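Quick illustration for those who missed Monday's session on complexes.
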Amino acid sequence: MTATVLDVRDVQKTFGAVTAAQDISVAVPEGAVYSLIGTNGAGKTTFVNMVTGYIKPDAGTINFGGRDIAGMAPRQITRMGIHRSFQIAQLCNELTVEENMLVAGAIHGNHRPSFLRNGHNAEARDRALATLERFNIAEHRNRLIPELSGGVKKLLDIAMAMAGKTSIMMLDEPTSGVAADEKFPIMDLVIGALRSEGVTVIFVEHDMDIVTRYSERVLAFYDGRIIADDTPDEVLSDADVRRYVTGAAA
Ligand SMILES: Nc1ncnc2c1ncn2[C@@H]1O[C@H](COP(=O)(O)OP(=O)(O)OP(=O)(O)O)[C@@H](O)[C@H]1O
Ligand SMILES: [Mg+2]
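Prediction with magnesium ion bound:
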């Protein structure tokens, strides 16, 4: 039996009249790859935001690492090993790929970026380059962000989220803004790199081909609730999912 790494119980969240999370419960086994599906506004990002500390649930518990992390600050949750990417990549346009990576390393390691110290931190630089290589983007290291393709930006964003020790990686739409022919190669790289390190992955995705190919388990969200939690085949053939999720305009 694989241990549960993340145990979400009866989580609720409303924004005024909108119920963004209602009775959300899920137990994620260590090392699993989960995808979250659902139409716009179904509650996928809210789920990611609650697990990563960006939104405090109104009620319920989120157990990770032997503690209830519901309502903890994002920084504290990151330090405990839950990292994330955002729907829109969070990159600094005025810096190069390598400098962005060094900033991410500095934030995770709590030190000043080495390029602010005249590049004297060789160890931080080696670590940054190794991570860029793992995501196959080291060749772009001296380029500025606006010169990059959507796919390379996504890879960099995820590489930066991996700068610290990662137990769970939450990816909010890793293939949005990525050209159709780049989606599979990017997911191969990302999921391959994360799996090889035993990282548990939870990613939000609108493309059902990606869902089927890369996740072992799918959570289907509708109106702030999880209406299905099963293998991709089971979830995508579920009558409610076909009616409210995959059949509806996403
Ligand atoms: N910070 C917030 N303040 C107010 N309402 C919010 C906030 N965050 C989310 N909501 C609302 O909660 C509901 C769920 O939003 P959420 O962003 O979780 O959807 P989503 O499934 O990620 O959708 P999408 O596919 O468009 O990204 C929506 O009605 C949204 O408008
Ligand atoms: Mg979203």
